[in-house]
Amino acid sequence: MVLIWSTQSPIGDVAARETLDAALAFAAYDQAVTLLLSDAGVMQLQSMPNAKQAGAKNMSKLMKALPMYDIDNVYACQTSLSRFSIDTQQCVTPVQTATTDDIHALILGATHVIRV
């Protein structure tokens, strides 16, 4: 399993978009992919209808497409969700919350970890 760990905000940088593109590329080549979002990366889970005005990429369409690429394991750091006041019921794609211990287990269970 490839763990793609995104810590970047969709605002002001292309790193978040490129990380998501990498996850989709691995999945397109039949690699099992798990996506982990932490720190400002959890902001990718929010719908951003005015993304361009905020200097961000609206990634909600890509996030909604994850199940089509068999990326069903999407985790978000519980602490980061709280810090950014994000409710998992309002996320653009289904997400599981992950504690520090859960994140540690994901890292140990992965054959490759890509953190951006």
From TrEMBL:
InterPro entries: DsrEFH-like (IPR027396), Sulphur_relay_DsrE/F-like (IPR003787), Sulphur_relay_TusC/DsrF (IPR017462). SUPFAM superfamilies: DsrEFH-like (SSF75169). The keyword Membrane does not apply. It comes from the Bacteria. The keyword Transferase applies. This is Sulfurtransferase complex subunit TusC. NCBIfam families: PRK00211.1 (NF001238). Belongs to the DsrF/TusC family. It holds the Pfam family DsrE. GO terms for molecular function: transferase activity. It comes from Echinimonas agarilytica. Keywords: Transferase. It is an enzyme of class 2 (transferase). Its EC number is 2.8.1.-.
